[in-house]
Design goal:
The complex is a heterodimer of chains A (262) and B (298).
Chain A lengths: L1 E10 L3 E11 L4 E6 L5 H9 L7 E10 L2 E2 L5 H6 L2 E4 L11 H8 L6 H14 L1 H5 L10 H13 L5 E5 L7 H16 L3 E6 L2 H7 L2 E6 L2 E7 H6 L1 H8 L14 H9 L1
Parallel strand pairs in A: 3-8, 3-9, 6-7, 7-8
Antiparallel strand pairs in A: 1-2, 1-4, 4-5, 9-10
Helix pairs in contact in A: 3-6
Chain B lengths: L1 H31 L6 H18 L4 H22 L9 H23 L14 E4 L2 E4 H23 L1 H11 L1 H6 L4 H24 L12 H12 L4 H20 L1 H4 L7 H16 L14
Antiparallel strand pairs in B: 1-2
Helix pairs in contact in B: 1-5, 1-8, 1-9, 1-10, 2-3, 2-4, 2-8, 3-8, 5-6, 6-8, 9-10, 9-12, 10-12
The chains are: A alpha/beta (262), B mainly alpha (298).
């Protein structure tokens, strides 16, 4: 459904953040995108949704396709209308207005009132927490509820593809599980998902495929189960390398990385 | 007592005009983070356009009012489209300088087209008055208050219940997150300029229909509406209306009791009252009467 090929993104004309990234999200699948801070995960999402402009970023090479359509450097509103919705990093809910209004704002691109009401019912069904707090100001929700609201708001656009940027950020383990289950549920209802995560275990558990991004390049990709079993992934992202304890002095990460990006 | 009520009435009428202008300031400040110094220029432009419609083209006054608001809105939106759109994402300071520039361009433009002389707008109100409860009400003042009330009501309904109004509120809160919802920031900015210009034009034509008539210096009223906006809280539409009314009342009452209470302070003490009031209120509440106290999760 979404295919990104050879994408290169530059901020402020000098900072090269993505250096030829290619990935694809097949229809109906969950794809996990892993990587350390600064690897370029959020930048990749911005490049897809057209939100590079406010950050003075530019796509200098490569293309983004949604299905057959070229959406490289498209207008953000255009991208949403074509069926890609995004849950931004750090929730970014509209804290000053009510839960209800937040959800309505998510449906801005849609015109049919009955369809909007349908989505609205569906979102409240998916998140009973929100149904209970419809009239309260969004800024007073708990962190977990705010994340649910952010996801619900994105769903109000009735996306074919949902981009999630670190939905587990700052949530208790219990809530991370809840978010995970919801992502699976959304996916089963027919929405493809691109899941950007630091929490690699959680992401790979539910994903069909995974990509590992490092300093602006895809260094590894494959079926999620394969990545979960991979030696290097286990050591660098899952924090469990075999049983025995090892000293950091012995971890020769530079050599490993060399082999990876070769 | 009668004098007091009479002064209050004058204050309400004056305050309504301030409220309209201040509301225009707030709309633009809220959505773009910029104080539009050209508001006074747009007000004068609106008033002169109203004069042209009413006197030269001789359309009915109500239609002239409507037309001058619409054409001012068009001017505001066009200006946003041509000039300010290129400035999106640039520091607000630069944009504020541009609005100051616009003010200085508008003034000579207006005098070049309409001249300097004092003009009287043809209008059905003139200096007619009605008497009730022992008080004398100017018909124009009644209309000013009524129209302002109606416009303010429409304004709040628009922001509360329409999809575009909601889009404008969320863009004011978090432009990037609003973009991510597919809300077009351009449309929001253009609409806020159109609304602000229309509000200014309405205030302008209402003033021009009054005893002061129409002179190129009519735009100076925006300077008095400025403290109204700051006093109410720069980002609060309700505050702008409240601030406008308070300033208007304070000014009218001071003027009413000028010879009895403030004779020592000279003739024009009422002119400085808005600013004194603004300073005092800002000392007590630095973010204005209804300015945002940030919503935070506890």
């Amino acid at each position: 459904m979404l295919s990104v090929s050879n994408l290169e993104v530059v901020y402020d004309d000098v900072v090269l953040v993505l250096r030829g990234v290619s990935l694809s999200v097949p229809s109906g699948e969950i794809v996990a995108l892993l990587g350390a801070n600064g690897a370029g995960k959020t930048t990749l999402l911005r490049a897809v949704t057209g939100l590079l402009v406010p950050h003075r970023g530019k796509i200098t090479k490569g293309t983004v396709h949604l299905g057959e359509e070229d959406i490289t450097s498209a207008d953000p509103a255009e991208v949403v209308r074509k069926g890609i919705a995004q849950v931004m990093e750090g929730r970014r809910i509209f804290a000053e207005i009510t839960v209800d209004e937040n959800l309505r704002a998510g449906a801005y691109t849609r015109r049919s009132r009955t369809e909007i009401n349908e989505s609205y019912a569906r979102v409240l069904d998916l998140f009973p927490v929100l149904a209970r707090r419809r009239r309260s100001v969004a800024g007073y929700l708990s962190g977990g509820e705010q994340q649910m609201l952010a996801i619900g708001r994105a769903l109000m656009a009735q996306p074919r593809l949902l981009l999630l940027d670190e939905p587990s950020l700052g949530l208790a383990p219990k809530l991370v599980e809840q978010v995970r289950d919801i992502v699976v549920q959304i996916n089963q209802q027919g929405t493809s998902v691109l899941l950007v995560e630091q929490n690699a275990v959680m992401a790979l558990e539910i994903a069909h495929r995974g990509y590992v991004l490092e300093t602006g390049k895809v260094v590894k990709d494959g079926p999620a189960a394969e990545l979960l079993a991979d030696e290097d992934i286990r050591e660098f992202y899952l924090g469990s390398a075999g049983g025995e304890r090892r000293s950091f002095a012995e971890v020769k990460s530079y050599r490993r990385k060399k082999r990876w990006s070769a | 007592m009668t004098t007091f009520l009479q002064n209050c009435f004058a204050g309400l009428s004056l305050g309504s005009t301030y409220a309209l202008v201040a509301l225009g300031f707030v709309v633009i400040y809220k959505s773009t983070g910029v104080i539009n110094f050209a508001q006074g220029g747009l007000l004068a432009l609106g008033a002169y356009l109203g004069y042209t419609f009413s006197n030269n083209l001789a359309v009915a006054f109500a239609v002239a009012v409507l037309l001058c608001c619409l054409s001012a809105a068009l001017v505001g939106a066009t200006f946003e489209r041509i000039v300010l759109r290129r400035m999106v994402g640039q520091p607000p300071f630069a944009v504020i300088m541009i609005t100051i520039g616009l003010l200085f361009v508008l003034e000579p433009l207006i005098t070049a087209v309409w001249g300097f002389e004092h003009k009287q707008v043809d209008n059905p109100w003139n200096i007619r008055t009605v008497e009730a409860f022992g008080l004398v009400f100017g018909v124009r003042d009644l209309w000013t208050i009524g129209l302002t009330a109606a416009v303010v009501l429409a304004f709040f309904l628009f922001f509360r219940f329409t999809s575009l109004g909601l889009a404008m509120r969320v863009t004011a809160f978090d432009p990037e997150a609003a973009l991510a919802q597919g809300i077009s920031a351009r449309k929001v900015y253009a609409t806020s300029w159109a609304i602000a210009a229309a509000l200014a034009a309405l205030a302008g034509i209402l003033m021009a229909a009054g005893p002061g008539g129409l002179t190129p210096s009519i735009g100076f009223i925006a300077l008095a509406a400025f403290p109204a906006m700051i006093l109410g809280g720069m980002d609060s539409p309700a505050g702008a209306v409240l601030g406008g009314l308070i300033i208007g009342l304070a000014e009218a009452i001071t003027r009413g009791y000028q010879d009895r209470l403030f004779s020592w302070a000279g003739d024009n003490v009422s002119v400085i009252v808005p600013y004194l009031l603004m300073i005092v209120i800002l000392l007590i509440r630095p973010y204005g009467l209804l300015g945002t106290k940030e919503v935070r999760r506890i």
